[in-house]
Amino acid sequence: MSSTQYLNFISTQFSAYVGIITLVAGVIGNILDIIVFLSLKTFRENSCAFYLTAMAFLNIGQLISSLFPRIMNLWFAIDWSVASLAYCKIRTYIFQVCSLISFTCICLATIDQFLATSSKPHWQRFCNIKIAYRLFTIAFVIWILHGIPTLIYQTFVLSSVTGNYSCAISDSTFQGYYTYGYVLVLISTLPVLVTAVFGLLAYHNVSQLAYRTVPLVRRELDKQLTVMVLVEVLFNFCVLIPYIVVYMTYLGVNANRNSYIYAQIQLARNVTLTFYYWYFAVSEDH
Question: Is residue 282 within 8 Å of residue 29, measured between CB atoms?
Fold first, then answer.
């Protein structure tokens, strides 16, 4: 076995075994999150907890629509995306919508905790469940409409390299937006920046709670939710940044598919992509 073949073997095995662990742990973890958030009245009436609950539902949808088919292909060589054009379009659409709304929820949850822990009462008034419902509905509608071009341009494309058809984007202009606008900005760089900034601001506010006249119950709830959000933000930073770096490297390197360099990049890409799925798998209450 050559060095290139060996790297490809490691890449496939890593994606297959770690992927299935991620899928099972992610679905179970998000279900537990949903049970915790919906079973307590305190969480059901809290806007930040609402965002985290919605995110748990969306993460399950994302894992099932994207990671599960990937695992089926790795383990059993079953590629449903080339068996049905409707599935090719719908799978990509669901993945895109779920991931965008999920990242929107963590951004809103982080901003919500910054406002909730603020010393300014007029900012705290924006943290209520009715506003959370409205913001979530607006985001949901926006991302549903945003995904329509994906339904149009996602189709069977003949590969000039392999000579086989694959489920891919047929329009070069939309492919450019998908690569740089959607992947590198909307579901990676932008959420990292927003959650990092407002997460740090929320942490600063929480550190000042002991010096304010705040009811003990509310203070403890704010601390608990802020810790949940900050752990999620820190974890997201650790799994998303490597993915962004490797993805940009993959776009910038023009290597032969049979070369050792390409095999190295593919291994790094599969490893960071698997870590990327951990964002959707790790539960917030851990």
Answer: yes
Integer Cα distance of 94 and 234 in angstroms: 26
Query: Could you report the per-residue pLDDT of 25-73, keeping only the tens digit for each?
Result: 999 999 998 998 888 887 788 888 899 999 999 999 989 988 888 888 8
CATH code: domain of residue 160? 1.20.1070.10
Both tokens assigned to 212: 């304010």
Kindly tell me if the per-residue pLDDT of 1 is higher than 70. Answer: no
Is 262 in contact with 2 (CB distance < 8 Å)?
no
Tell me if 286 is assigned to some domain: no
Read off the pTM: 0.87
Taking every pair of C-alpha atoms in the chain, what is the biggest distance, in angstroms?
69
Q: How many Å apart are CA 208 and CA 41, to the nearest integer?
A: 27
Asked whether residue 217 is domain-assigned, the answer is yes
d(CA 51, CA 129): 10
Q: Where are the beta strands (DSSP E) in the chain?
A: 154-158, 165-169
Tell me if residue 156 falls in helix, strand or coil: strand
